[in-house]
Design brief:
The complex is a heterodimer of chains A (463) and B (593). Chain A is of the alpha/beta class and 463 residues long. Chain A has 12 helices and 25 strands. In chain B, a hairpin with a 2-residue loop joins strand 4 and strand 5. Classes of the chains: A alpha/beta (463), B mainly alpha (593).
Chain lengths: 463, 593
């Protein structure tokens, strides 16, 4: 009798349990699922047509390059989902009925939800170039793009990549790893100079050329030519009219929110799905996170749409709290990011704009090998440190963040700069070099007081 | 550049083929004065049997000769069954003991060998070792001209390094283990310990599968679902065969030993044994592949210095110093090797040998004990187990150099980790029990410790763990299961160092705030099969008993997330918490109010 009651209770509970449906199994959607599970006992379903399991999108390039297999890019073993009672549905959502809280899947089956999370990600930008739909043309965003690249790589004589930026250089590195000659068409006069300050941008441009990638700056794509069978055979450069023979064209002129299919559905869409500070859309119990979301009121200095791994993860966590009725505002905190340009690692903390505002002073040091640099920005008037830009050198996130948030004086930062150094043991430390530059610029005579080492960092962080 | 490398590769393959092919060269001829036997009675018995089998004064190929020699000795033994033992003479001075057979066969094969290798050892040395070193360096040195940076392109496209399907790999492993157990039973003539081993293996599998609920957790990330490394299988097979010959069938590799005889005479003043050959090969492979590591990690000083360190310790401590000691008539000891990895450290003959040598022997005995009693806790507290495993140890040295191309093949699944914990700590317990038994026998003279026969246990440990696990599976499976199979699953010293590292050490791998993108390079290239990413993406500091501190996770990270560090502060807090939490419960409460 007692067991029966318990079972009844469980059954009732199951029926009353909220059903959280998440569309998209990227970092944002999966983070939401994990946090909803941590915070509650709700029923969770993740729907994705891209892949059965969550994988790290940022690692796609390593599969192509033979560094890893697809399996290795999955952050959780396949049994993780069952163990955490997260249902995975490998299907495509065709339509959403917000009023009745119902989804229609590709096969025609319906699924109802209590809370819906849209974590739809991005799609590669296509600017209506003639020939952009030919075979052998793609961006690099999802698993299918990778399969497409793989399919055309055998015997490929040359690939042309249109667009600089992070994905462009990734794609160049991928083809380069298989000894396939690459031409990069970049609109800017120097690689990624709309984001990187001129010195760093020049350094990376040099590095690209050093790796035998044919880098064409200040040029645009005019059209992609058909070889007669529906496959790309060459591209025409707009400025010069030059025709470059190639068997593959990578279109990497950025990404935009993957929201086209929702345009008519009644949900409010700008560039992305509009969300308030709780990541709620204009539809009841519908949230949007990650690449596809556009914040109505982003923090000062931040964009409404930020297609970045880290913000996707933070939004996923924030959405989970809101779904579990613990309302909290989305706050991405201090800006940080990282990347790798072939062999040069890049980290940024805080404010490092491409063009220096008037009240901002900068310290820039570059190694003679042209592959390492440190930039520290600070306020000209108050001397508060504002940002760090690192190339080929690793700095500690926690330390840099604390300095910036606490408006630390740049001279204090410089004298303790070793605290930030995160390079492996035995690596040469360059902190004194940047202090020397500061001394030269200001006539000061500062000396490095704190060198690299964890003990000092721990006591600094606990202060 | 490419053509120089290709020529180098061809030279290396040629050297390898000559090395294998030379085993069939020459032959043996047994004459009356070369008959084995430690006593006249043994010699007479064998001589009588030899005239029955007709082996005397016949020129034969080695394989025929060995089988005929073995049957000759077997006949001699059976002839002796009825022999009467004269008064005042020990039974085994007359009868040939079964434990003496292998020694007689080996020494006779060696002393009767003739042919081209015997006549021109240096020539063959140059054609194998010389050519292989030359070819290897021609392949490796041009790499120094490449741009410094990560060199992992195409690893999973290469039939040597891309790994096997999970079930094929498991099949090969199971067959190998069963074969070793069966052979151990046949060789030692005692089924007790093989059955105990089988029982323990079954118990561990039960614990992992049922009690730890790992049965349904299929380990997808452990091995490839599609790729099959046929070249890796061949390499594994060659390595396994080499270890079988070296440990258990060394009479068939006389030509290899003959080839290094002159060098052995120069270095230690004595003839070579198969152990000299092994040590020499080991050192040369470690050095050449060490140069490869240096070329691969030009941009990483931690890897460079660490590699130089293992090259140094292997060349001096493991190889040269023991030879020189031996030349000086001192006990030939590897002063960096320690119990329980050096499991025979407390064996009676070794203790006796050291004590016999007086002060220097006693010093070596004390040094060996101090190393594991004081050195391990002390250094491991300050620097983690890496001070030994990836800076000093010979096994680690080989894994980090020759094994480096295979590091990605280690099994990252939770199930493998569960197996690892049972097996490696089990081996530590076995080593301790075995050593207690050996010391008990040393001091009391009794072979009975409870239900354990200490002598049998000692032989079984040497056979199964010392040879089977560390050599055949530990190194033979490099191309199949990664380069640290022994260090991860089997080494009792690693288990001991790991316990210190886990519970009392300043060493940890710190993760850099929120920078992890979960790409998985760190986990993929962790030779110990640690799922580094699972910590990095949570922002936790990593404190794991198995981590040998090779530093590769940090080297392959594209976003600068991982750093090997030593410091006391907050270690349990930072290793215990989910630290990439973006929202704190406090924040939520404030908003709710």
């Amino acid at each position: 009798m007692l067991t029966l009651q318990v079972r009844d209770f469980k059954l009732t509970y199951f029926l009353l349990m909220d059903h959280v449906v998440i569309i998209g199994n990227g970092i944002s959607g999966v983070t939401t699922a994990r946090w909803v599970r941590k915070l509650s006992d709700k029923k969770i379903t993740i729907i994705s047509s891209e892949s059965e399991h969550f994988f790290s999108r940022t690692a796609l390039m390593y599969i192509y390059m033979g560094h890893m297999r697809y399996e290795d890019t999955k952050p959780y073993e396949d049994w993780f989902w069952k163990k955490n009672r997260i249902d995975l549905v490998n299907d495509h959502v065709n339509a959403i009925d917000y009023g009745n809280k119902k989804l229609t899947l590709k096969g025609g089956t319906e699924m109802s939800y209590d809370r819906l999370v849209l974590a739809l990600g991005s799609k590669s930008n296509m600017f209506g170039w003639p020939g952009q739909d030919l075979k052998g043309v793609s961006g690099l965003y999802n698993l299918q793009d990778l399969e497409n690249m793989e399919a055309y790589s055998n015997g490929l004589k040359r690939a042309v990549i249109c667009g600089g930026g992070l994905i462009g250089i990734e794609m160049a590195e991928m083809f380069h790893s298989r000894n396939i000659p690459v031409t990069m068409l970049v609109r800017e006069e120097s690689y990624w100079n709309n984001v990187l300050p001129p010195e760093e941008s020049a350094m990376i441009s040099d590095h690209i050329v050093k790796n035998h990638i044919d880098l064409r700056l200040g040029v645009n794509l005019a059209e992609i030519k058909d070889d007669g069978t529906g496959r790309a055979k060459s591209v025409i450069v707009k400025e010069t009219g030059e025709e470059i023979e190639c068997g593959y064209v990578g279109l990497t002129a950025g990404v935009s929110p993957n929201v086209g299919w929702l345009k008519e559905s009644g949900i409010e869409i700008g560039r992305g799905i509009k969300v308030n500070e709780n990541l709620k859309t204009n539809m009841t119990d519908v949230y949007a996170i990650g690449d596809c979301a556009e914040l109505l009121n982003p923090n000062e200095g931040r964009r409404g749409v930020e297609a970045i791994w880290y913000t996707g993860r933070m939004m996923g966590e924030t959405a989970a709290y809101n779904i579990c009725d613990k309302p909290v505002s989305y706050d991405p905190g201090l800006w940080f990011n990282s990347a790798k340009f072939i062999d040069i690692e890049y980290q940024v903390y805080g404010n490092v704009p491409a063009q220096m505002p008037e009240n901002m002073a900068t310290l820039f040091w570059k190694h003679s090998d042209n592959e390492k640099s440190i930039r520290i920005n600070y306020d000209m008037n108050s001397n508060d440190v504002l940002g760090f830009n690192l190339f080929g050198i690793r700095y500690r996130h926690e330390v840099c963040e604390k300095w910036i948030l606490e408006k630390t004086n740049v001279e204090t930062v410089l004298q303790n700069l070793g605290l930030a150094n995160f390079d492996p043991e035995f690596y040469k430390e360059y902190e004194q070099d940047i202090i020397d530059i500061y001394n030269k610029q200001t006539g000061n005579n500062l000396k490095l007081k704190t060198r690299r080492g964890l003990s000092k960092v721990l006591s600094f962080l606990s202060k | 550049m490419k053509s120089i490398q290709n020529i180098g590769l061809l030279l290396f393959i040629a050297a390898l083929l000559i090395f294998i092919g030379m085993l069939g060269l020459g032959g043996n001829k047994l004459t009356q004065d070369l008959l084995p036997g430690k006593t006249e009675a043994h010699k007479t018995a064998i001589s009588d049997a030899a005239s029955q089998t007709g082996i005397l004064d016949q020129e034969m190929g080695s394989i025929d000769f060995i089988s005929k020699l073995k049957s000759t000795i077997a006949i001699a033994q059976s002839n002796q069954l009825t022999a009467t033992i004269p008064e005042g003479v020990g039974e085994w001075d007359v009868k040939i003991g079964y434990w003496e057979v292998d020694g007689y066969v080996q020494s006779t094969v060696k002393s009767t060998a003739n042919g081209p290798v015997h006549d021109n050892p240096w020539l063959f040395f140059l054609m194998t070792f010389g050519l292989a070193i030359l070819g290897g360096l021609m392949f490796i040195l041009p790499k120094f001209k490449e741009n410094p940076g990560l060199k992992h392109n195409g690893i999973y496209h290469d039939p040597l390094t891309r790994g096997l399907k999970f079930n094929i790999r498991t099949g090969i492993l199971l067959c190998t283990i069963v074969a070793v157990l069966v052979y151990g039973f046949l060789r030692l003539g005692n089924a007790f310990w093989p059955i105990v081993t089988l029982f323990i293996a079954g118990a561990i599998t039960y614990f992992v599968f049922i009690r730890e609920k790992s049965k349904d957790n299929n380990p997808q990330r452990s091995a490839s679902p599609i790729s099959t490394a046929w070249l890796g299988v061949i390499s594994g097979f060659v390595l396994i065969s080499f270890y079988i010959l070296l440990y258990w069938k060394s009479e068939y590799i006389t030509n290899w030993v003959e080839m290094v005889n002159p060098l052995s005479n120069i270095l230690s003043g004595g003839d070579a044994s198969q152990w000299f050959l092994y040590s020499l090969m080991y050192t040369i492979i470690l050095l050449v592949m060490g140069v490869r590591m240096l070329s691969k990690y030009q941009h990483n000083r931690y890897e460079q210095i660490r590699t130089l360190s293992v090259m140094f310790f292997q060349t001096t401590f493991a190889f040269m110093i023991p030879q020189i000691l031996s030349k000086l008539n001192q006990p030939s000891v590897d002063l960096k090797n320690m119990w329980p990895l050096d499991y025979s450290f407390f064996f009676d003959y070794r203790i006796d040998d050291l004590i016999k040598e007086g002060n220097i022997g006693l010093f070596m005995l004390g040094w060996g004990i101090a190393l594991f009693l004081i050195g391990v806790p002390l250094f491991t507290y300050f620097y983690g187990k890496r001070w030994y495993c990836s800076w000093v140890c010979g096994c680690g040295g080989l894994a980090e150099t020759m094994g480096d191309p295979f590091r990605q093949l280690s099994d990252k699944s939770m199930r493998a980790w569960k197996y690892e914990r049972y097996i490696i700590n089990g081996v530590l317990v076995a080593a301790v029990v075995m050593t207690i038994g050996v010391l008990y026998t040393y001091f009391t003279g009794s072979y009975k410790l409870g239900f354990i026969n200490t002598s049998d246990l000692k032989s079984w440990y040497g056979f199964f763990i010392g040879a089977g696990f560390s050599g055949i599976v530990g190194t033979g499976f490099y191309p199949l299961m990664g380069n640290r199979v022994w260090c991860r699953f089997g080494c009792p010293l690693a288990a001991y160092l790991g316990l210190v590292q886990k519970f009392k050490s300043r060493f940890r791998i710190t993760t850099n705030g929120g920078q992890c993108i979960s790409c998985g390079n760190c986990s993929t290239y962790c030779e110990m099969g640690i799922d580094v990413r699972s910590y990095a993406q949570k922002g936790q500091d990593i404190v794991r008993s198995s981590c040998v501190g090779c530093g590769i996770c940090s080297a392959v990270c594209p976003r600068g997330v991982l750093r090997l560090e030593n410091a006391d502060g907050d270690i349990s807090e930072r290793a215990g918490l989910l630290r990439t939490i973006h929202i704190t419960e406090d924040e939520v409460k404030i908003l709710n109010q």
